[in-house]
Design a protein that fits this description.
The chain has 2 helices and 5 strands. It has 105 residues and is an alpha+beta fold. It is globular, with a radius of gyration of 15 Å.
């Protein structure tokens, strides 16, 4: 069976997927499978991004990055559920983050 894209899922299906991935991530963590855990964490962040409204995030605003304490991210523009911008503590290079990783300080 072909897996649906997150963009095609209902909120209920996304929440089910997040619960499923969270369980897999927990097992990977218990088994010390760091790389697998990181993959599940990225998938969870992506699924959560589709539960949010991109219009709640504005270019020019600054957010903290979930999972990276002290790092601030300034949005240049949005493309779907991705915020493109740069870390204020970085070298200014542009990167994209799922909006689910952005926390309003």
């Amino acid at each position: 069976m072909q897996q649906k894209r997150y963009s095609e899922m209902t909120a209920y299906e996304l929440k089910q997927e997040i619960a499923h991935l969270t369980e897999k991530a927990r097992k990977a963590e218990q088994m010390g499978m760091v790389n697998e855990l990181a993959v599940y964490e990225r998938k969870i962040a992506m699924a959560k991004a589709y539960l949010l409204n991109p219009e709640d995030f504005r270019p020019g605003d600054i957010y903290e990055i979930d999972g990276d304490p002290g790092s601030l991210f300034k949005i240049r523009y949005l493309n779907g559920v991705f915020a493109w911008g740069y870390r204020l503590t970085g070298d200014g290079s542009e990167e994209a983050l799922p909006i689910s990783l952005l926390i309003k300080p």
